[in-house]
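Input record (Table S2, row 311):
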Amino acid sequence: MPMVEIRDVFKTYDGGFQALGGVNLDIKEGEILALLGPNGAGKTTLISAICGITLPTSGTITVGGHDVVERYRQARSIVGLVPQEITLEPFEKVINTVRFSRGLFGLPRDDARIESILRKLSLWDKRDTPIRALSGGMKRRVLIAKALSHEPRVLFLDEPTAGVDVELRRDMWDIVNELKADGVTIILTTHYIEEAEAIADRVGVIDKGQILLVEEKDSLMNRMGHKELRVELDEPLTEVPGGFDGFDLRIERDGKALVYSYDTSAERTGIARLMAGLTDAGIAVRDVSTVQNSLEDIFVGLVSAKQEDEA
Ligand SMILES: Nc1ncnc2c1ncn2[C@@H]1O[C@H](COP(=O)(O)OP(=O)(O)OP(=O)(O)O)[C@@H](O)[C@H]1O
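Output record (adenosine-5'-triphosphate complex):
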């Protein structure tokens, strides 16, 4: 059974805006799923619906087998949510804020547990500091500590590293990996494709309230990843040279560069044949370089292909 099961979920806000247009998604126990999508794609709406904060207009969602509407308390008790916006009591001390969150779920006080969470998040030294005296990055850590205080089995991180510095971002990734090692299922939304590349097991792309694709990150990158070989030429060409049937070639820079796109997963890349063919044709090569296309290119390609389909 999937940890999170989303079936035909639609959400239309009061006022008529449709934020989710039929979402189906299964999330496996113990995986890290990154949801990528442009602003307004529906990521926060989807997370809020899974956490039972927003009511879907139709469709069903279960977490750990519990329907998030009909069995809200059971479902919510195994979910931790780190919201996008910082919502903390400015005058409260760090440790009390985290203890209080645990209490809200009806769990008994467990100082050893709270200490271990605060240590993991490098907040132990700041335990008696009032929230208002913390930096923005530290406040984000407190949000995570609160979300972990009741030992959730599924953790939602809504843009956890928006606006944090590079060091803190890497720390967050380490924390996420440690939680995964503890068996926690993690769903994060992000605008940073490098973040999905770095930590996700699977990547989902959402746009205009619809999931365009969900796939294992590695297979996605292999399947859609290709490389380009750029051959800089001494003399410009007026057209792509003949004799290279089956090669995806184009000319750039007014004919002074020949660009060959090839599949990185293919058994033979064709590079040797291309270079030999150019030599045979008397085409002098000045320089060569390759560029790997990233998850970012794949993502931009997907979202723009959908926009063209709709146009
Ligand atoms: N309470 C609301 N009432 C009406 N429309 C809303 C409400 N909340 C969100 N929306 C709209 O629903 C759409 C999806 O918003 P959502 O916050 O889910 O997107 P997102 O993918 O999380 O975006 P971002 O990356 O900018 O955080 C947006 O167009 C937003 O304006």
